[in-house]
Amino acid sequence: MQTLLSLLSLGLTVQPVQAAPACQGTIYLTFDTGSQSQAELIAKILLKYHIKATFFLANEKTVRGDYSLAPSWAGYWKERVAEGHAFGSHTFDHVYLLGDGAQGKIVVKPQFGPDAGKKQEWTAQQYCDELRQVDQRFFELTGHALDPLWRAPGGRVSARTLAAASACGYSHVGWAGAGFSGDELPSDIFPNAVLLQRALNNLKDGDIFMAHMGIWSRKDPWMPANLELLITGLEKKGFCFATLREHPAYASIFKRAL
After folding, report:
1. What's the pLDDT at 256?
2. Phi, psi of 150 (to 5 degrees)
3. Does position 5 have pLDDT exceeding 70, yes or no?
4. Does 16 fall in a domain?
5. pTM for this model (two decimals)
6. For residue 168, what is the domain's CATH number?
């Protein structure tokens, strides 16, 4: 109080503390595992801007020559847990859905694991076990359980996979049309600048944005050029960021889990 009176006696103006501007909307950043070439960059940028995101995990081959849910990645995932991010299953072996088969079976093709590249016919319980295997491994690595969320590789779902996942406690998460980063598209046809501008122009309040933690096939990677510019561009438009724990479509799931 004495300091304030002293300033006033000298004729100095005391500026009121400005409140942080209110959010004009919320964007939900999500990242699927991939080659993991961009894993460290993602972590660095999210931390720099104090952003919480949601990660969907599969045990995919990485640029290190290991797999994204191997013990060698335990430190990375523990750090993301400590930072307050959310985590969901992306199927353990990055299993693509081919379709619903006969006699209630689900036809799939794993990308990794002992049956990589082989067409399989699974029961609903087998599909559920595939989702839960990620949960089990993540707990082994971090001591932290997944959130009750999953995302199908390629976004491919069917009535049976949705029902199987729901029966074992997982809700599926897709992404908005404007939220498709395009990071797996050929960079000569879809250059980074075009993909960035499309996202900045079209993302709106409540949209879920999806990118990968590294794509083997894209020659000019999306992430180094675009992630920070996407975040700062959206912030300039008044957007804030949150995990899917706060998304209106999923918040009730977390309330039930409390």
Report:
1. 59
2. -150, 160
3. no
4. no
5. 0.91
6. 3.20.20.370
